[in-house]
Amino acid sequence: MAPTIAKSLRFVSGNPLESLAISNSSLRLTWGDLARALTRLYALLPQLDANPTLFLQNFRWVAVSGGIDYSGYYEPVVRASRTRKPGYTQALYRCPPEVKNKRRKGHYYDRRTIEEKQVLAGRGLELAWVADPVDSFFLEIQGSGRLFFEDGSQVYVNYECQNGHKYKSSGRIMREKGLLKRGDIYEQRQWLKDNPGRVREILNDNPSYVFFRYGDKGPTGTMGFTVDDWLSLAVNRAEIPLGAVVAYGVNIPDENYGKAPLRGIGFAQDVGGAIKGRRIDIFCGSDEHANYVASHLDAKGPAWVLLAK
To answer: What global pTM score does this model have?
Structure first.
C-alpha cells in the first residue's frame, strides 16, 4: 500500500494546500486536508495490521451520502497485428492532430462516421489492427490495455484523447433494444458473439470514440501514475476528490461462491467518462479473476472519506 499512498501524496502536494479540492453539499476539503490524511496513513502503516483500531482513533470517517454504485475496470489483453491483413481489419487509431491540438471546434466525428465512412483511413493514424472489433470496443471502455501480437511480443496502449461525444454504454443500448436482461459485460460479449451480424449496429449506437497511444507502462490514472490492483479507484471528482483516502465495502462477483465481501481502503486516483453521480470504479488488475469481477460488478455499498483527526 505504501507505493500507492506515495503516488497520491505526490499528486496532492502539487496543488496549493490551502485551496479547495472539493466543495459540495457533504464535503468541503482543501488539498491540505487530503495531504494530512495520506501522511497520517503512511506513518501508521507498520502498525495497522496488528492494531486496526488505529483507523478509528486517527481518522474521522465521513460517509458519502446516499451510498455508492460500484463497478470495476481491468487491463484487457487484445490480439492484434502491426499491419492490416485477413483476420485483422479493425483499426486502432492514435489521436488525430486536429483533435490533439484542438484545431477543430465542437465534437469530432462520431463512432458511426469513423467506422462506416472510414474517414480516418489512409492518414497513417493506425497504431495496430485488432482481430475482433468487440475487443477493440471494450479496450476503449477500459481506457488502456495490452496488445498481444502474433510473434508473441506485447505493447501497452494508453488513452490519448476522445472525440468529445457523450458516452452511452453498450449494456444500456442492448437493454433498450430488449436484447439483454442484466447487461453486464459477460452477457454482452456472449450476445455479440452469437449475433455477429448486429455487432456494428450495437457498437455504433455509442457515439463516443477513444484514441490511443503506445505506452511504456500499464493502465495509467488521471494522476499520471499506474493504477494498483484493488487499491486505485476511479471516481466522479464532483463527489469524491482525487487524492482522497476512501474506505469502501461491496459484495463482488465470485466465480465459485456467487458473491464475496470486499472491504478495504482505496485511493481516488482516476476518473472516467462513464463515472457519473456517486460511483466508484475499482481497478481489479489484469488476470482472469480481474476480468470476471470487472465484467460483472454492478452493486451498491457504503463508502467513507477518511480525514486525519
So the answer is: 0.78
